[in-house]
Amino acid sequence: MRNSVPALQRRWVLGTIMVATFMVSIEATIVATAMPRIAGVLGGFSYYSWVFSAFLLAQSATTPIYGKLSDMLGRRPVLIAGILLFLAGSLLCGLSGSMTSLIAFRVLQGLGAGAIYPVAMTVIGDLYTMEERGKAQGMIAIVWAVSAVVGPLAGGIIIDGVSWAWIFWVNLPFGVLTIIGFLLFLHETVEPRRVGIDYAGAILFAIAIISLLAILTETDASGWVLAGLSFLFLVSAGLFVWQERRAAAPIISIELWTTRLIATSNAATLLAGMALIGLTTILPIYVQGVLGYSPITAGMTLTALVVGWPLAVMLSSRLFQTFGVRRTVRVGSLVFPFGAVFLLFLTPHSHPAVAGVASFLMGFGMGLVSITGIVLIQESVEWSMRGSATASIIFSRSLGNTLGAAALGAVLNTGIMHYGKGELAVKLHSLLNEPTGIAQLARNQDVRAVLFHALYWSFWGVVVVAVLAVVSSWLIPTLVKRNDAPAMKKTSVLARDKLDAYD
């Protein structure tokens, strides 16, 4: 496919992918910046983390399905279907009247987002060789950098100046442009294959993840409820593994995922995703609630994170050629926990710039881990498997985000109950549920102290997960061996030579 597509057409396709990437990336930064205020308007702060978790759960559960569908039906129809679902969810999110309805519509958004990023990255793998892909990914990185600057600023301006609904409605014009672009410029010849989708596996996976999230989120539930959820998780997870081993076309190929390259890349990406989403959800609360700064300032600390990520991607191709893949990813990944450690030096009187440094370093480390995994996995399989393989690492990141948002949200709520001891915890939750309550926290020293100590527990959680992510990244091989696994047997000799040359 790479050789049959004219250069001009490839540029138009890449431009359309950049618009789609901008739509998804700016959504993440805007929502994270605005959520403390939205939670105050709609009420229900106890469900704060579920606004993120619901989106990420739907995204995680559908990413492998979209990857397989793109291998069967082609990339374009799957991309367009995902964008339409995402836009429908965005429209309805802006019409939400409660946290419950917002969470429900975020699920619809997530169902669409499960297709956009992984299939778009697969298209880049289809159109560009390994040498060219660094430039293409660099263009995507520029989009992330621009959205990192524009997103938090736009989020702060929207939440302070107009209806919060525009936090979600801003996606609509970008989505329409991407649909038009893919219809006009992304042409492909695909021979349909009669391969069934493992819907039973998808349902069992969703049940297992939902029950796990409920265990992590509902920390104040009774022991019997938690025991029942734990039993449901164990049973559904066991049935899921059994189903995947017997399915003719499993949603997640155990054989594929147990190869060393994919297993270690996915493990590192999952753990890094857990740490990163934890930072994204708790840092705005710290900057606004503890330090007393505005939503715009809180958003700028997240801007540093999303600038660090694309910067690492832009530099990755040159670093690979100069130092080799293994040395680059191992040494570079150490930046990730180093940035997390900066969180432990935050105090109730710190300058937001300290939080910004932590965000930048963690984003840079995550960028190196992520791009290395995607490039190596895409080069290790042929076209008919590239969608599923690419989806596996995007799925791992989404699953890590899902688990991280729930787990660190649970840590935060537990910390509030531990340090609040009754009235202070009630007062803190009451302020967080008011439209302007988070702005009042900095003037209430007792409640502010409770929030800070609870957040500090979450900071420690981010550090621990970041260290585990680095351990996993050091195990990633940079050369796919001929006998690595049955799923890798179709790897071309040329691809293996390229990977060996970069090592």
TrEMBL record:
Keywords: Cell membrane, Membrane, Transmembrane, Transmembrane helix, Transport
Organism this protein belongs to: Paraburkholderia humisilvae
Principal location: membrane
Tagged with keyword Cell membrane: yes
Subcellular location: Cell membrane
InterPro entries, alphabetized: MFS, MFS_dom, MFS_trans_sf, Sugar_transporter_CS
Segments passing through the bilayer: 12-35, 78-97, 103-128, 140-159, 165-185, 197-217, 223-242, 263-287, 293-316, 328-347, 353-377, 398-419, 457-480
Topology within the bilayer: Multi-pass membrane protein
Upper taxonomic lineage: Bacteria, Pseudomonadati, Pseudomonadota, Betaproteobacteria, Burkholderiales
Gene that encodes it: mdtD_4
Gene Ontology cellular component terms for the protein in this record: plasma membrane
Signal peptide: none
SUPFAM superfamilies: MFS general substrate transporter
A family per Pfam: MFS_1
Name this polypeptide is given: MFS-type drug efflux transporter P55
GO molecular function annotations of the record: transmembrane transporter activity
Annotated Major facilitator superfamily (MFS) profile domain residues: 13-481
Alphabetical list of PROSITE patterns matching this protein: MFS (PS50850), SUGAR_TRANSPORT_2 (PS00217)
